[in-house]
Design goal:
Blueprint lengths: L1 H30 L3 H11 L6 E7 L2 E6 L7 H6 L4 E5 L2 E5 L3 H12 L1
Antiparallel strand pairs: 1-2, 2-4, 3-4
Length: 111
Amino acid sequence: MIVVIKLNFRIEYIIIILVCLVIAVAIVRSKRKDFKLEANKLIMLLGGKDNVLKYEVNKSRFIVELKDVSKANKDGIQKMGAQGIVEIDNQLKIILGSDAKQLIKYINELK
């Protein structure tokens, strides 16, 4: 009788641990960014893919040369999470932090 009680007690702990793991995985997945969606949104905020001449990533900065800088929605890019935007002639330097390297992969697929 004592052996059965200890076995049931351990199964309850295993079930509780499994439930906690499932909840933890769900939380992590919900907080992950959808970089394909972010890349699409960024291209649209830059005036569309026809407005983008060339682009590159330098550490945390996304550097993009545009046909017409006035078509870029700098406020929208800022709201998207950019930490800063510098405009020089027809070029924007957008500070995106660690997301810049991941976004460039999806932007390459769009172009």
